[in-house]
Structure formats: structure tokens, C-alpha cells
Amino acid sequence: MPTTRAHVYVHGRVQGVFFRATTRDKAIALGVKGWVKNCLDGGVEAVFEGEKDVVEKIVNWCKKGPAGAFVNHIDVHWEKCSGEFDEFSVIY
Question: What are the residue ranges spanned by the domains of the chain?
């Protein structure tokens, strides 16, 4: 299966609703590597690397997010997989 990288910016009410923690849990369960962090503008930014179909699943999940989140829209930039990550982490 081919691998890919998605650099995602999530806009809306996505801070203070466990978006980062839930994203981490879902990424780990799916075997996706990368990171997630809050942005100063109130959004969330994440990088996902892994098998294309699995990365597409977590990107699609980001369009809704966890209960309590309200996602206005997401920006997704598809890139070549770098293989630089050993795990998925939350950046504080």
C-alpha cells in the first residue's frame, strides 16, 4: 500500500473540546504517525503520515472532530511521506 502525508489545518471551534487528544488516540489506533497542535488563531494543525487509505480516514474524521467540536472547514495539503516520525504526538 502506498504511503502519504497530509498537512491539515482545522478551522472552527476546535480548541477546548479535546480535539488534540482525540486526534492522537485515533491516529495511534490507526497506526498513523505525526503530530497535532493548537494554533494561535484558534485552529488546530496536524501532520499525518501512513498508508494512504488510513491517512484519508483520519483526514475525513477531522472534518467533524470529537463531540463538542464545530469544524467550519479544513485545509489539506497532500505531500510526499517523509518517514521522519516514529509515533504520533501532541505538541504543546
Answer: 3-91
The reply to whether 72 belongs to the active site is no
Instruction: Considering the candidates 5, 13, 24, 38, report the single residue annotated as catalytic.
Output: 38
7-59 pLDDT tens trace:
999 999 999 999 999 999 999 999 999 999 999 999 999 999 999 999 999 99
Could you tell me if 26 and 20 are in contact, meaning their C-beta atoms sit under 8 angstroms apart?
A: no
**Which of these is catalytic: 5, 13, 20, 72?**
20
Of 6, 18, 21, which Cα lies nearest the Cα of 59?
Answer: 6
Q: How far is the C-alpha of 23 from the C-alpha of 40, rounded, in Å?
A: 18
Distances in whole angstroms, Cα of residue 3 to Cα of each of 18, 22, 29, 41, 92: 27, 23, 17, 30, 27
Give the architecture (CATH level 2) of 3-91: 2-Layer Sandwich (3.30)
Show the cell assigned to 76.
Answer: 489539506
